[in-house]
UniProtKB/TrEMBL annotation:
This is Oxidoreductase. Residues 186-195 have a biased composition (Basic and acidic residues). Residues 167-195 are annotated as: Disordered. The lineage of its organism: Bacteria, Bacillati, Actinomycetota, Actinomycetes, Kitasatosporales.
Length: 195
């Protein structure tokens, strides 16, 4: 078997399922990450007066990572002897804060699903166990984008207040997306039942 876990821009996925463009959903944001010296003594978000210095540091940075915020949405996560997991199969985007969680949650049923089954049934069981949790978390990207990248002065003020710990986000009904899946108790389940 081949298990693809090589991320958002997966070569394994492209080889098995075709070009990324058919699965990639752009969320309307781009981001850049680079390392710079903490010459400002920053310990939290600061005022816009620091932006020119940060842009100057960007021009001198040794390394730069630039990408768009996006998700991977696929109709199926396996083909023949291969299956995909984590961002390779279902990237939620960094706006949700759930990428690592989805990878770990998916790896658990994927590891157990072939037990006592043929490969096709095992991969189908893995997807059956994980699909609803993935969809719920992918749906959170809009909320994350609105929170992290506000478009009005009022939304910016609310975000900053929340980030400083002076306020919390309103509670949602039911279980929050990040905890909407109950991990199976493998000791209590038959060897072939991992969902």
């Amino acid at each position: 078997m081949v298990l693809g876990a090589d991320g958002l821009h997966s070569r394994t996925r492209a080889l098995l399922f075709g070009p990324e463009e058919q699965f990639y959903r752009y969320l309307g944001y781009c981001f850049a990450v680079f390392t710079m010296r903490n010459t400002f003594g920053l310990t939290r978000e600061t005022a816009g007066r620091e932006v020119p210095g940060m842009l100057a540091a960007l021009r001198e940075a040794d390394g730069l990572f630039f990408d768009g915020a996006g998700q991977i949405r696929m109709p199926r996560w396996s083909s023949g002897r291969a299956a995909l997991v984590g961002d390779t199969a279902s990237a939620p985007s960094f706006l949700t804060g759930q990428g690592t969680s989805l990878a770990l949650v998916g790896a658990c049923p994927l590891a157990g699903s072939p037990a006592g089954r043929d490969r096709t049934a095992g991969f189908a069981a893995y997807e059956h166990c994980s699909r609803a949790f993935v969809a719920l978390n992918q749906a959170q990207a809009g909320h994350g984008g609105a929170t992290l990248v506000p478009t009005t002065a009022r939304a910016l003020e609310q975000r900053n207040t929340m980030l400083r710990g002076l306020a919390t986000r309103p509670a949602t009904e039911g279980r929050p997306a990040h905890s909407a899946l109950t991990r199976p108790d493998f000791a209590q389940r038959p060897e072939h039942d991992y969902c």
